[in-house]
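Team,

Forwarding the record for the chain on the shared tracking sheet. I've put the sequence and predicted structure together so nobody has to dig through attachments.
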Amino acid sequence: MVIPFAFTGGIVGGFGHNWVHQPKYRKYAYCLDLIGFSSEGWIREHNLQHHMYTNTPLDNHFLGTEPFLVCDPTKARWWVQQYIFPTLTPVLIFFGAWVNNIAHTVQLLLGNENFSIGKLFTPLEIWILVQLWGFQRGLGLMICSYGLTSVWYFTIALMNHNSEHCWDLQAKREAVDWGHSQLNASADMEPGLSFYGSWKYLWLNFHTIHHLFPNTDMSKHPGMQKVLLETLKEFPEVKYEVIPFGGLYNEMVKTFSEPRHPMDTIRLFPQNGL
């Protein structure tokens, strides 16, 4: 029961992430609410913060995993953050969907978030499982299913922006425009896969092209990737990063473990302006 639920949740999350970027398909993005996220919150936090200000203090991902996992490359780590928490990354992000849901609920009660029908989906899912399996087993199934989905989704999402390349602050300052800065803040894994072959990465393996053209449907990414590679041949000074899954995971853990640029400054925009 848990594995099929978590597998379906991951696929649903991949499609929900795609649709939340497209106003025309806004209602389809309610599927994010089916796995514990808030599509209402994502429109603001993911679309308007993460994509606009990627890997800067205005990016909601910048502090989103603290105090357990620290992404900030300028910030000193406490010894537990340096040696213990990074090795426990899968355990910590197991609770990602639940933490997101609880945080959004608190802000909703404080009047800082908008209510939508999607907010009722998680309580309804819990109620259904409890009715079918009893309180303890039903709640346990729900916690584990959301948890495995969170590990799948957040592992890839964090890998996309926490390699050494993604935190090269000097390259970030020298970017010629916003698009160039997105290339500096994103990393891909197996972007040569087809649309159907990319399911294992929840279609986040084409992450650079997604950050360049976030409103474009993910079904177009394989074709757009070819155009990106051809275009990059004209700009050899622009670095584009593709790293195998294992290598990218290790670089992410290293980012969590130690500040790559202690006491440096992170600029919101390239020094050359937009």
